[in-house]
Structure formats: structure tokens, C-alpha cells
Amino acid sequence: MSDRIELENDESITKELCSPLPKERVIFTYLMNAIAFGFTGLALIPLLSILWEIFIRGISGVKGEVFVKAVIDNGFGNAIWGTIVMVAIGAFLSIPTGVMTGIFLAEFGQNPIANIVRFIANILTGVPSIVVGIFAYGIIVLTIKGFSAIAGGFALAVIMLPVIILTTEESLKLIPTSQRLASAALGGTRFQTTFRIVVTAAIPGITTGVLLAVARAAGETAPLLFTALFSLDWSEGLLSPTASLPVLIFNLYNDPDPEKNQLVWTTSIILLGLILCVSIISRLVISQRKIK
Q1: Who contacts 250 (Cβ-Cβ below 8 Å, separation ≥6)?
Q2: pLDDT at 85
């Protein structure tokens, strides 16, 4: 008897689950979907209009020679090189520090010191970039008596650091505790478990955070105005003023020379392309992490 009652209950539940939704719920679902798509379209209009305007105005200036000439010769090769150099300096300074700090916060950070470090990292994510530029100006420019690529790289490192710290910490926290326990059960020390098991498993997430930090730093303008300044010609070294793509756009946007104005729009395409490539790489890393 009880089996028959359970069978009838199962059939009724199956029938209820397979029955179509009431018309009111179907209409409400379609209405909400339409509203969501509508607001999404409104949000995309400013972005697409900006991209379209930059593309239309700048595509005609994309020629081979502009990549090897300096700004003084109506090119931006020196600005591309300066951006790469300063981002590389920033990455060299921030990646080891940020990753190790994130490991400390995630694996050994159950103490007041870790809470203070985490609080400072969260605050740094919201500090305006121009304030970072003033800080780097006081620390580096006034110390070495001049604007330079090193000062610009230091400012970018300060901007990249909190992003790398927080993404590293969150990536490590996503690793299951069972992996740590398994390593300890096999005789692994805390150090071996952290760096051979946990960090290895979190490499895709850490890499994503690093790439996002690099993409953000590549588009910063304000810190470089106070640190690297600008140069119309090729830089003489790491201790001299250095051109960059964002500052080139800032300096030459109102230039009355039509060639310089065209160079600004073309530079905008290149800068957006670089940031887009880094963002795509980070998305690919995330997708590979999900597949694994």
C-alpha cells in the first residue's frame, strides 16, 4: 500500500514538473528578459560609440612606419617602447611582492598583522591614480633628481600591487582544504604543501590577477605625468624622461597640427588593442582553469 502511495506521489510530482508554466509566469519571464536586454543595450551604447569613433578617426593612420618612428617624426614607436618598459618595471617590482603577500594572507594570515596588510591592500585599490603619482614623485623623482622610466614603473607597481595581492589571496582560498590535508597526510610540511600543492593549483587564478593588473597599469596616465613625464624622441635610458601611449594621447589631443591630432586617434586604437589582448589572454586563462 505504501509503495502504491509513493508511486502516485512520484507521478504527481513528475506531472507537475513537466506541466507548462502558467501564462502569467511566461509573460512575466519574457517581460523581464526584454527589460534586461534593453538595459544591457543602453549600457553598451556609450562603449560602442566610443570604440566606433576611435576606430573611424584612427584607422586611417595605422601604417607600418608609425610603429618605428618617434613622436617627433609623427610616429609613436618610442611611446610603445616606453609603455612596455615601464609596465615591465612595474611588473618586476609588484608581481613577486604581491604574490608572496597574497600567499601569506591566504595561508598564514590568521593574525592581526595580516588583517592590517589586507586592510591596506583594500584601501590601495581605491586610491586615485593621481595620488599614487604624487607619492611616486616625492619618493623617486625628488630622490634621483629627475623624471624617469624607473619612477614611472614604480608608480605603476604601486597601482598593480593591491590587485595582485587580493586576487592571489582569493585564488588560494578557492583551493579545497582536502588537498592541504592530503599533502599533510603524506608527510608534507606546511611549506611544501603551500608551494608545491596549493600555489601550483592556483597558478591560473594568480596569472589572471597579474594580467588584469598589467592591463590596468598599461592604461594609466596620471601617475606617469608626475614620474616619467614625456619625451618626443627616443628615451636616452631608464633615468631619463620616457614617452608612453596614455601620456601621448593626453599631451597631443589639443595639438592644432592635423598630423599630431591624427596620431592621437591612431595611438588610441593601439592602446585599446594592447589592453584588449591582455584582457583576452586573462579570459583564456580563466576558461582553461574552468575546464581543468
Answers
A1: 221, 225
A2: 94
Percent of the chain residues past pLDDT 70, beyond the cut? 90
Q: What is the dihedral of CA 20, 22, 27, 29, to 10 degrees?
A: -70
Whole-number Å distance between alpha carbons of 138 and 151: 10
Task: Report angle CA 143, 247, 209 to the nearest 5 degrees.
Answer: 80
What is the C-alpha separation between 165 and 201, in angstroms, rounded? 17
The answer, yes or no, to whether residue 6 has pLDDT greater than 80, is: no
* CA-based nearest residue to 103, from 194, 16, 192: 194
Q: How far apart are CA 152 and CA 55, in angstroms?
A: 28
Residue 150 C-alpha from the chain's centroid: 21
> What pLDDT is attached to residue 189?
83
- Predicted pLDDT at 11: 56
- Grid look-up 523581464 returns 32
Express each pLDDT in 109-126 by its tens digit. Answer: 778 888 898 899 999 888
Q: Residues near 43 by Cβ (< 8 Å), separated by ≥ 6?
A: none
Global pTM value: 0.83
- pLDDT value of residue 86: 94
